[in-house]
Amino acid sequence: MILSNGWHTKQVDYTNAFAQAEIQEEIYIEAPRGFGGADRLPKVLKLLKSLYGLKQAPKTFFDKLKAGLLERNFIQSEIDKCLFMKGDLVCLVYVDDTILAGPNLEAINKEIQSLGVSTEDQVHSFQLRDEGQVGDFLGIRIEKLGERKFNLTQTGLINKVLKTAQMESCNPVATPTQTVPLGTDKDGDKFDEEWEYATVVGMLMYLAQNSRPDIAYVVHQCARFTHLPKKFHAIGIKRTLRYLKGTQYLTLTFGQRHFDDTSPLICMVDANYVGDRDSCYSTTGYVYWFYGSPILTCSCKQTAVSTSTTEAELIAASMATKTGAYLRRLLEHDFGFNGLSEANGSVPIILPDTISQGQKNGHPIKNSKLLPTPIGEDNQGTIAVSQGGGKHRKLRHIRVADSYIYQGIQQGKFTMHY
Question: pTM of this prediction?
Answer without folding.
Answer: 0.81
